[in-house]
Structure formats: C-alpha cells, structure tokens
Amino acid sequence: MTISIIARERILGATLGAALATVVVFEQRGRIYESINETQFQRKEPIFGRKSRQELAHLWNISVDKALRPLIQSLSSRGW
Questions:
Q1: Quick one: how far is CA 59 from the chain centroid?
Q2: Rounded to an integer, what distance in angstroms lies between the CA atom of residue 68 and that of residue 27?
Q3: What are the phi and psi torsion angles at 2 (to 5°)?
Q4: Residues 56, 48: contact at Cβ < 8 Å?
Q5: From the first residue on, what is the mean pLDDT of each consecutive set of 10 residues in the chain (80 residues)?
Q6: What is the per-residue burial (b if ≥16 Cβ within 10 Å, else e) of 33-63?
Q7: pLDDT score of 55
Q8: What pLDDT, on the 0 to 100 scale, is given for residue 34?
Q9: How far apart are CA 11 and CA 3, in angstroms?
Q10: Do you know which PANTHER family this protein is assigned to (predicted)?
C-alpha cells in the first residue's frame, strides 16, 4: 500500500509545523522566565546539579534513539 504524494506532503507539513510551534513556544517561555524580576520570583535550588542534569539528558537521548531506531529505519527504507 503506497501513500500518495499529497498525503506525504501533508504529513510532512504537519510534522514540520508542529516542530516549529514547539520551538517557538519553548523559546518564548525561556524569554518570559528571563524577564521576570528576581525579587518577584524566588528561585528554588534545582533538584539535580548541572552535571546530573547533563547525564540525565544524555541517557534520555540514548534511550529515545534506541526506542525509535526501528521506526526511523523503516521510514528510511521506504524512501521518506
């Protein structure tokens, strides 16, 4: 069963649109948090230190890569 070119374009457009929207939202959230005055917002100490957060992010990326590898290979073999 093949997916038509129009359907592929729509799926690709929706995916790229969602990714762009996500980037914009997170960028705006970061700017909002930076603009809040320190005296109005008391920051709590992070649960994890900087090194622990980097290790956690690295482990997360490895697990996502391993989990999605079959899907990526399947899509690549179909010419996506």
A1: 15
A2: 26
A3: -110, 150
A4: yes
A5: 82 94 92 70 62 85 91 83
A6: eeeeeeeeeeeeeeeeeeeeeeeeeeeeeee
A7: 87
A8: 77
A9: 10
A10: OS10G0481400 PROTEIN
Tokens of 62: 């490895």
Name, in order, each residue with C-beta under 8 angstroms of 46's C-beta and a sequence gap of 6 or more.
53
Q: In the block, which residue shows the tokens 């129009």?
A: 6
Q: How far is it, in rounded angstroms, from Cα 37 to Cα 1?
A: 57
Distinct helix (H) and strand (E) counts, the chain: 2, 0
Query: In the chain, what is the straight-line distance between the N-terminal and C-terminal CA atoms, in Å?
Result: 15
pLDDT computed for residue 19 by the predictor: 95
